[in-house]
Amino acid sequence: MKTSTYGSNMSVQSSSNQSAHVSGIGLFLFLVALIIGIAGMVGMLAADASFFWALMYLGFFVLIGILCMYSIRVAQQWEKAILLRLGKYRGLRGPGLFWVMPFIDTVPAWIDQRVKVSPFSAEKTLTKDTVPVNVDAVLFWVIWDAEKAALAVEDYHSAITWASQTALREIIGQMALADILLGRNKMDAELQKIIDQRTTPWGITVQSVEIRDVVIPADLEDAMSRQAQAERERQARVILGESEKQIAENFAKAAESYQNNPTALHLRAMNMLYEGLKEKGALVIVPSSAVESMNLGGISGLVAMAQNTPAMVEAAKKPAPAAKK
User: Fold this and answer.
1) Is the domain defined by 116-216 classed in CATH 3.40.50.1950?
2) Which burial class, exposed, middle or buried, applies to 3 when counting CB atoms under 10 A from its CB (0-12, 13-18, 19+)?
């Protein structure tokens, strides 16, 4: 079904190309010859000439106009016309106006030398580690020798498409799934090299190949997602362990600093109590061992006394109540 559709598209494109390459100058000359023929025919009939000779006069100029219309061809700036004379290759024509000999010369192909884009794909192709994948790619190519493209291969569009698909399947079969997913640039370079080697004898060069998408099975995608999550969890636990190790090392260094410096230890204890009691209504729970080692009991008493001193002063200022009789 795809082949027939492609063939019909090519036939429609060929007919449209033929009509597009008819020169406007040729059409103009055809109209001029037709007008001259009609005017001459009317004049001959007005002069009582034979209708047969008047019709022959008109036919002569119509034939001249048709020959002019189909003899003058025009090729666009990006095109080359393949000229055959009695079936033999005579050369390339264009861009611009050129002449062909009616009934002797033919122009079977018009070669477009602009850069073309051809998408291609490989479906359910096994990788080196036997994983089926679907790969979509885009090929950028250009015809650098129009003669070879017209004479060396029947249909260079189909040829380059099949060559690209075959090369893509070969590359996928030689690479593991991880290499395909991570090494797309390398895969693009290998594809370009292989396809270019196959198309060079046809006068076609490959400018670049780009992998658009790599589709893997849904089950494998879920498994890879779980594996990635487990790997990230493992890395998080390793980082947390390294952090705990660094914290323990820093605590050990701090203990060594406080071991022979009781004043620094008491200052640190006072700072801890201050941080815990600076907000109103805060409750601080301190282990008994810390109270004994850092003398937190005396310090906490001093702090409590300092907090209660303003209340005691206010109470002392108030007059004593009178004794009841």
Assistant:
1) no
2) exposed
